[in-house]
Amino acid sequence: MSRPSYIRRPTERAALAAAARSARPLPPVPALMAALIEANDRRDREGVQLAAHLVVRAAAPEVGEA
Fold it and tell me: How far apart (Å, rounded) are the C-alpha atoms in residues 56 and 64?
């Protein structure tokens, strides 16, 4: 059985290039912490995971930026 090959779509390449060119600012840490608490209160595991990752990204500078 042969492996399925990966077919890139032209729009995928354009979307990835556009995303790499533009910086996406994150919300302030207090707003993200409020979202984390809200997701935790609602027992939304996916929301907790997403908010926690965003808090870390917003609070810690990227490698080489400091």
Answer: 16
Does the pTM of the predicted model rise above 0.85?
Answer: no
Tokens of 17: 């290039």
φ/ψ of 24, rounded to 5, equals -110, 105
The model's pLDDT over 43-59, given as tens digits with 9 standing for 90+, comes to 999 999 999 999 988 88
CA distances from 51 to 12, 15, 21, 39, 60 (A): 26, 24, 24, 8, 14
d(Cα 23, Cα 46) in Å, to the nearest integer? Answer: 24
Closest CA to 50 of 31, 24, 32: 32
